[in-house]
Design brief:
The chain is of the alpha+beta class. It folds into two domains: 189 residues, no CATH class; 73 residues, no CATH class. Helices cover 30% and strands 18% of the residues. The chain contains five helices and twelve strands. The strands form three sheets. Strands 1, 4, 5, 6, 7 and 8 form a six-stranded mixed beta sheet that branches. It has a four-stranded antiparallel beta sheet with strand order 9-10-11-12, with helices on one face. Strands 2-3 form a two-stranded antiparallel ribbon. The longest helix has 30 residues. It is elongated. The chain starts with a helix and ends in a 5-residue tail after the last strand.
């Protein structure tokens, strides 16, 4: 056998091995637990986006209100999903009207939000159709009672996850009932969550010793401020672009929504010129306004 023939034969067997291995892997059954975890993660992130949308859109549905507020949790016993607009939806699927105590700021994630009297924002339906997602909100970020301090990018989050603080909201999926969790459906948090996640305080964890199958995502103050400051700037750009004259932006911000004056003006830095810059205390983004551009440019992606 020549050297070339030997090399060709070696290559043939190598390709044969790779092909056989590929067929074996393709025929192997997927890990159902891993697939379920990925599906939970997808739904948790969809719920997170819905909550952020609620905060950003808040002034569009409640006249005179600033952006940035989250709904209170739902405190009812889980039940079947009720279509938007039905009496049961208003009773069983919506946020509570207030959550002024720490124990009231953790409960089930509302499946639909009555914004301005209509059900216009609905949490994605999947596992959440069984109302299994739980939700905790930081003090000062819920819509009732509203904080006494200005509701701006500096307001600290009071929740923590695995020791990381400055968290404004946590969304949890409890997983299948563990041996000690025999009371479902119920309003008892320990029937669903474990360890630090079940003690109705401000600290949450992603892992723990012993039986534990909670899965969660969270909204940090940086993520929150990135979305909400962009909304504030979009509203300011409308009035400032309208006042643009003589090749320059106006010397001061006038005509802004009333909530800007009460909640945001004190921590906003505005620099006019042919283009204008807007900065907010508590957020590292510099927004640049240009009348020729439909949206403001950002100096960085997140606060």
């Amino acid at each position: 056998m020549t050297r070339q023939q030997g090399a060709a034969l070696l290559l043939f067997f190598l390709l044969l091995f790779v092909g056989a291995a590929s067929l074996l892997l393709a025929g192997a059954p997927a890990n159902p637990e891993l697939a379920e975890q990925r599906e939970r993660a997808r739904e948790l992130n969809e719920a997170k986006e819905a909550l952020l949308a609620y905060a950003v859109l808040y002034p569009d549905h409640y006249a005179g209100e600033a952006p940035g507020f989250f709904p209170c949790p739902n405190s009812d016993v889980p039940d079947a999903y009720d279509p938007p607009g039905t009496d049961d939806a208003a009773t069983n699927d919506s946020p509570e009207t207030e959550c002024d105590d720490i124990s009231e700021r953790e409960g089930r994630l509302p499946r639909q939000f009555a914004m301005g009297g209509s059900y216009e924002l609905t949490i994605p339906v999947g596992n959440i159709a069984r109302q299994e997602f739980w939700y905790a909100i930081s003090e000062n970020y819920d819509y009732n009672p509203k904080p006494a301090a200005p509701h701006d990018a500096q307001l600290p989050g009071t929740l923590s996850v695995d020791g990381q603080g400055d968290i404004v909201a946590v969304i949890l999926f409890p997983g299948v009932p563990l041996p000690a969790q025999t009371g479902r459906p119920s309003t008892t948090i320990g029937d669903y969550l474990e360890d630090e996640n079940a003690d109705s305080d401000t600290d949450f964890v992603t892992t723990a010793a012993g039986d534990f199958n909670d899965q969660l995502v969270y909204i940090s103050r940086s993520e929150y401020a990135t979305r909400v400051t962009a909304r504030v700037v979009a509203d300011l750009k409308k009035v400032l672009d309208a006042a643009y004259a003589g090749g320059t932006y106006p010397a001061s911000i006038t005509g802004a929504p009333g909530w800007f004056t009460t909640e945001w003006a004190g921590t906003t830095t505005y620099t006019p010129g042919a283009t204008a810059q807007i900065q907010f205390a508590g957020c590292g983004i510099t927004y640049t306004l240009d009348p020729a551009q439909p949206v403001a440019a950002k100096s960085q992606e997140s606060c």
